[in-house]
Design brief:
The protein has helices spanning 76-79, 138-142, 161-175, 182-201, 210-228, 236-243, 247-254, 261-277, 287-293, 299-310, 314-319; strands at residues 4-13, 27-32, 36-42, 48-57, 60-68, 70-74, 85-100, 103-107, 111-116, 121-137, 151-155. It is of the alpha+beta class.
Length: 320
C-alpha cells in the first residue's frame, strides 16, 4: 500500500478563474485540499496562481507553487479549522515579499525557509515566483524543538551544512514520492523533522537521531556519484570533499550497504556503459569511447572489469 496520495492541481488566472470570477483589484477566495484557502487579488491582468500540485507522503504535504501578478493573503478566518503546520520553503525562481505574523520576509532562491502557517500571512510575489514547499505538522517539530520561531531562514551557499542537508533531503522525498510506502514514509517523516531540528539548533544537543544525518549525507554522496561518474578523476576523497565530510566518514556511510563507495561508483559506470553498448543508436561508437565517456581510464581496464561483472566482454554483448 502506497503512502503517497495522488497529486491534486489547481490553476488560477485572470482568464481561467474559479467561481466567483475575479476582477482586477477585487478579492476572491480560492482553495485546494493540500493548500487550504486564501484570498487572491489580481495586480496584473496576466496574474496567475498555478502549478499548485500537492501530494502527501506520510504526515508531510508536498506542494509546488507558481505565483505572478497577484496578492495573496491568509486571515484568521482561513486559519480556523486548518491543521497547524510549518512550511519548509525552497524557492526555485523569482522573489516574494511576505509578511508572516508581523515579520517581513523576502523569499528568494539559494535559501531555505521554515515559516509558521498557523499565523496570518500576506504574499506578494515580485514578478514570477516558484517554490517547492513541504508542510510539516507543528506537533512533530515541537517534539524536537520546544521554542519554534515564527520564521527561520538559512543560506544554501555551502556555509551551513545542516541547511544544505535538509534541502537535499526534502527534494529527494519529493522526487521519490511515488515509490514510497507506508513504513518508509514514517521513517522519512521522522528523519526530515530531525534534520529541521538540527538546522534550528545548529549544535549536537539537538534531539536528533544520528541515522537521519547519516542518511542525508549518504544521499548527498549518491547524488554526487550520479552527477560526476563520467569524471575519471572522481575518487572517494573527491566525493567526500564535495559533500563536506571526511573520507573516513564517507566509507563508514557505505560500510553496511554491501557495497563500498568506490564499488557503487564502478557499478554505476558499468551500468551506464552497458546501456550504451546495447543502444542501436550507438552501434558505431567505438568501445574505447564508451569506456572514456563513463569514467574508465583505458579500454583494457574497462573490458577486464566488464567481463568480471557481466561474464561477457563488451564486444560479445554487442554481438548479441
Amino acid at each position: 500500500m502506497s503512502a503517497t496520495v495522488p497529486s491534486t492541481r489547481m490553476v488560477f488566472s485572470a482568464r481561467n478563474a474559479p467561481s466567483p470570477a475575479v476582477a482586477m483589484g477585487g478579492w476572491s477566495t480560492v482553495s485546494s485540499p493540500g493548500f487550504g484557502s486564501a484570498d487572491i487579488q489580481l495586480t496584473r491582468p496576466e496574474g496567475r496562481m498555478g502549478w499548485l500540485a500537492s501530494q502527501s507522503v506520510g504526515a508531510l504535504q508536498l506542494n509546488h507553487i507558481a505565483l505572478s501578478g497577484l496578492h495573496m493573503r491568509r486571515t484568521s478566518v482561513h486559519l480556523s479549522g486548518l491543521a497547524q503546520n510549518y512550511v519548509l520553503a525552497l524557492p526555485a525562481a523569482g522573489r516574494s515579499r511576505n509578511v508572516v505574523g508581523g515579520h517581513d520576509v523576502l523569499l528568494e532562491p539559494r535559501r531555505i525557509y521554515l515559516i509558521s502557517a498557523a499565523v496570518v500571512g500576506d504574499v506578494q510575489p515580485e514578478g514570477h515566483y516558484e517554490s517547492f514547499n513541504t508542510l510539516i505538522p507543528v506537533h512533530l517539530l515541537r517534539q524536537r524543538v520546544s521554542n519554534l520561531p515564527t520564521v527561520f531562514s538559512a543560506p544554501l551557499d555551502g556555509s551551513d551544512p545542516r541547511a544544505e542537508l535538509l534541502g537535499v533531503y526534502a527534494r529527494q522525498i519529493d522526487r521519490l514520492a511515488g515509490q514510497i510506502g507506508d513504513s518508509e514514509a514514517q521513517v522519512l517523516t521522522t528523519q526530515l523533522c530531525d534534520l529541521v531540528a538540527l538546522m534550528l539548533r545548529g549544535d549536537t544537543r539537538t534531539f536528533c537521531d544520528d541515522r537521519s544525518l547519516a542518511a542525508a549525507h549518504k544521499q548527498k554522496a549518491l547524488d554526487c556519484i550520479e552527477s560526476h561518474y563520467a569524471d575519471e578523476d572522481l575518487s572517494a576523497e573527491t566525493i567526500a570533499r564535495r559533500c563536506g565530510i571526511s573520507e573516513g566518514y564517507l566509507h563508514r556511510l557505505f560500510r553496511d550497504s554491501g557495497q563500498s563507495v568506490m564499488e557503487r561508483l564502478r557499478a554505476l559506470r558499468l551500468s551506464k556503459a552497458r546501456e550504451m553498448l546495447t543502444s542501436a543508436a550507438l552501434a558505431n561508437l567505438p568501445i574505447s569511447e564508451i569506456a572514456y565517456r563513463n569514467g574508465f581510464r583505458s579500454q583494457s581496464n574497462f573490458c577486464r572489469v566488464f567481463r568480471q561483472i557481466y561474464g561477457v566482454s563488451p564486444t560479445q554483448l554487442r554481438r548479441h
